[in-house]
Amino acid sequence: MKLAKFRLPDGSTAVGRVADATVLPLVLSGSPYASLTELLDAEDVPQAVRDLETREPLPLESVTLLPPIDRQEVWAAGVTYKRSQTARMEESEAAASCYDRVYNADRPELFFKATPHRVRGPGQPLRIRRDATWNVPEPELALVLDRRLRIVGLTVGNDMSSRDIEGENPLYLPQAKCYDASAGLGPWILLLEGPPDRASLRIRLVIHRQGQEVFAAETSAAEMARSLEDLVGWLGRDNVFPDGAILMTGTGVVPDADFTLAAGDLVEITIDGIGTLANPIIQG
User: Fold this and answer.
1) Is there a contact between 159 and 140 (Cβ–Cβ < 8 Å)?
2) Residue 271: φ, ψ to 5°
């Protein structure tokens, strides 16, 4: 079951179930759930969605999909794939040993990525920093967590990164990662009714420039060096998330060192079973 947040033609915001090329708006008024956040915190989210009254189905193309987030913090994990470890070591000789050690360490690299106002949804522009010269998208499986830090759903994430800033000094990581329009999420949430099967989650990145494909690669969530539960467990240490959280789980696809995004590029990230998140790139 897929759950979307969207804007209706009259400008109001709604939550609904996506089925094929239609969306069924959910009637939250008068229900126990006043928002997407509260719905995701239900004891059994898929059943709670099934129990809600729906309005007439709408063509998916008639609504504007929004990032599937309300008040949740967005966090991210780093160096969870071998390719990411190699890429980070390429960025900086000074930081190479840090990235080498964290790949095999018990404690993962976790960092704060975005507040909701820095997140963009399907079709909305993502930014590259004006003061960076080496920028890449990072396609990632994103975990949707309730306030108890249960994994209740999955979505597609784009953890935009300024590699030259991070490579100059690892202490610059927040500036390389967290800025306006630096995170993409969507197109919706795949609700889970059991443990996620990482082997079935192929992740594909395609970058288009002036109508031409300039980069394409793929990986699988099965290649992640850490379990999803391990990452969530570390995130919850000495932390509470009253509105839940979204955790990007790291990237296994990194363009070569001679590639950087440019304004006008189109980034498409597809995860099997979830969907495709497409965002144009702007600068400034």
Assistant:
1) yes
2) -120, 125
Examine the domain organization and report whether 179 and 265 are in the same domain: yes
Instruction: For residues 139 and 271, give the distance between their C-alpha atoms in angstroms, rounded to a whole number.
Output: 9
Place of tokens 């804007």: 7
Phi, psi for 233 (deg, rounded to 5): -60, -40
Q: How far apart are the first and last CA of the chain?
A: 37
Token representation of residue 273: 């079973």
One domain for residues 58 and 87: no
**Sign of CA pseudo-dihedral 271, 112, 224, 208:** positive
Range of the domain at 231: 73-283
Amino acid 66 reads L
| Domain termination residue (choose one: 50, 66, 82) | 66
pLDDT tens-digit profile of 170-196?
899 999 999 999 999 999 999 999 989
Instruction: Determine the Cα–Cα distance for residues 149 and 197; give it in Å rounded to an integer.
Output: 18
- Please list the alpha-helical segments (H only) found in 73-217: 82-91, 96-104, 163-168, 173-177
Q: 56-102: per-residue pLDDT in tens?
A: 999 999 999 999 999 999 999 998 986 555 555 555 665 566 777 77
> Of 40, 66, 92, which residue constitutes the final position of a domain?
66
Cα–Cα distance for residue pair 231/110, rounded to 1 Å: 8
**How many structural domains are present in the chain?**
2
